[in-house]
Amino acid sequence: MAFIHGKSAVVLQNEFNLSAYFNDISISRSIETAETTAFGSTAKSYIVGLIDGTLSLSGMFDGAANAIDQEMTDVLGVNAGAIISASVSGVTTIGTRMISTTGKLTSYEVTAPVGDVVSANAEFQASDGIGNAVSLAALGAITATTTGTSVDNGASSSNGGFATLHVTANTMNAATVCKVQHSADNSTWADLQSFTSVATTVVTAERLKVANGTTVNRYLRAVATPAGTGSFTYHINFARQ
Amino acid sequence: MATYKVLVGLDYGKPSKRAEEGDVVSDLPAASLSWLIEQKMIELVDSAPSKIKKVITVEESGE
């Protein structure tokens, strides 16, 4: 057993690493239940329904370009929401457990007390639930084609999932292609999900759904293929369903 | 040797080779064939041809 401290948690929102602005993250998952108690029962019985989730982020206000205030107001009222990945353990190394979601910003609050730092608090409603993800590419820069080491889930899963890409910096002078591959034998790899090609110098984020009912094999890995020269800073995770 | 049509992009072998959707290949690792076929990632195009003995008969004319 290894307990972890929350001081180094990582929060990626769209193409931005907003970790430096937040000092608290709260992830809440829930599932509704429907009562099936009938006459003659001695105790209530239930069946489970739909999964739901919310995400709360608290931190310090910064009104600079691409800082917390701009990034929160940019997604306020935007139906597409924000692509959010977070690691409470503070690392995004391959194999790390993370969360990923598409969050609809439901509230953004800025507070300026006379005796304290100006704070910012955001609440997100997860759409399609909060994914229990695993990192397939640590947040970091590459300069050439990079194939991540494989992550062993122990078994395949059969209900699709979500592949998430965050590109936080990009000086490549040509497009970069990122994808998630899966394998049943850790030897031959099939493309599972390919992200939209990332054009030169573009920073972006994308969360792609692998359809329900799709087999996701036991092993997963990420591949990033830059066509040009420069530096490409990215992170990829995958959440099985 | 059997040949297979690739239905999903694949990386295989050492050193790693790449087969794109639509490619026809004959060098996929034998150990991977079963799950690739089962998951409809490849389909058999041509099984290994059987050896057929060809017999040629020459008829001599009586002239």
Question: What structural keywords apply?
Answer:
heterodimer, A: 241 residues, mainly beta, 10-stranded antiparallel sheet, 5-stranded antiparallel sheet, 3% helix, globular, B: 63 residues, alpha+beta, 3-stranded antiparallel sheet, 1 helix, elongated
Brief write-up:
The complex is a heterodimer of chains A (241) and B (63). Chain A is mostly beta strands. Chain A has one helix and 15 strands, in the order E-E-E-E-H-E-E-E-E-E-E-E-E-E-E-E.
Structural description of this entry:
- The complex is a heterodimer of chains A (241) and B (63).
- Chain A has 241 residues and is mainly beta.
- Chain A is 3% helix and 55% strand.
- Chain A contains 1 helix and 15 strands.
- Chain A has one helix at 68-75; strands spanning 10-13, 16-17, 22-35, 46-60, 82-87, 97-111, 119-142, 146-147, 151-152, 161-170, 176-183, 189-194, 204-210, 219-226, 232-240.
- In chain A, strands 1, 2, 3, 4, 5, 6, 7, 10, 13 and 15 form a 10-stranded antiparallel β-sheet that branches. In chain A, strands 8, 9, 11, 12 and 14 form a 5-stranded antiparallel β-sheet that branches.
- Chain A is globular and about 70 Å long.
- The two termini of chain A are 26 Å apart.
- The mean pLDDT of chain A is 97.
- The A-B interface holds A 181, 184-185, 187-191, 194, 215, 217, 223 and B 8-13, 28-29, 31-32, 35-36, 39, 41.
**Structural category of chain B:** alpha+beta
Mean of residue pLDDT values of chain B: 86
Structural class of chain A: mainly beta
Helix count from the secondary structure assignment of chain B: 1
Shape type of chain A = globular
Point out poorly predicted stretches of chain B: none
Return the string of H and E elements of chain B: EEEEHE
Amount of beta strand of chain B: 25-35%
Helicity range of the residues of chain A? Answer: under 10%
Biggest contact: A-B, 12 and 14 residues
Tell me the Rg of chain B in angstroms.
19 Å
Order of helices and strands of chain A: EEEEHEEEEEEEEEEE
Strand content of chain A: over 45%
Shape of chain B: elongated
Helicity level of chain B? 10-25%
Let me know the largest β-sheet of chain B: 3 strands, antiparallel
| Number of DSSP-assigned strands of chain A | 15
Query: How many angstroms does the end-to-end distance of chain A come to?
Result: 26 Å
Identify the strand order in the major beta sheet of chain B. 4-1-5
Oligomer: heterodimer
